[in-house]
Amino acid sequence: MAKCKRCGIKTILSEADIEKMVSEIRSMKGIRLADADEYRQRLEICRSCEKFEYGSTCSLCGCVMQVRALLRDGRCPYPHRPKW
Ligand code: SF4
Fold first, then answer.
1. What is the pTM of this model?
2. Over the stretch 35-62, which tens digit does the pLDDT of each residue have?
């Protein structure tokens, strides 16, 4: 199984893998989360972006976008003109 060179997790995540990561973030205390509309909009933008790979990952930062987009202070790393 291919693994991410940066973090060591699987390159291709199942829906269950992603849901588990999202649940863990949601259950953490002190994490500020994006509201539901903002989260949905961010993921829509990512899903139409040429840097989005494997249905989960931004090829610029290597983050799982279902997680990064959930963070209120998360930012798109697209150079010079972040998409969200
Ligand atoms: S975070 Fe930005 S650059 Fe990365 S996939 Fe989403 S829209 Fe594209």
1. 0.88
2. 999 999 999 999 999 999 999 999 999 9
Whether 60 is in a domain gets the answer yes
How far is ligand 1, taken at its centre, from the CA of residue 82, in Å? 8
Q: 3-class SS at 64?
A: strand
Query: How many CA atoms, within 13 angstroms, populate the side-chain half-sphere of residue 56?
Result: 18
The torsion defined by the Cα of 38, 43, 49 and 55, in degrees rounded to 10, comes to: 170
Ligand 1 midpoint to CA 50 (Å): 8
Number of domains in the chain: 1
Does residue 20 lie in a domain region?
Answer: no
**What CA–CA distance (Å, rounded) separates 43 from 29?**
23
Q: Considering only CA atoms, which residue is closest to atom 3 of ligand 1?
A: 78
Nearest CA to ligand 1 atom 7: 46
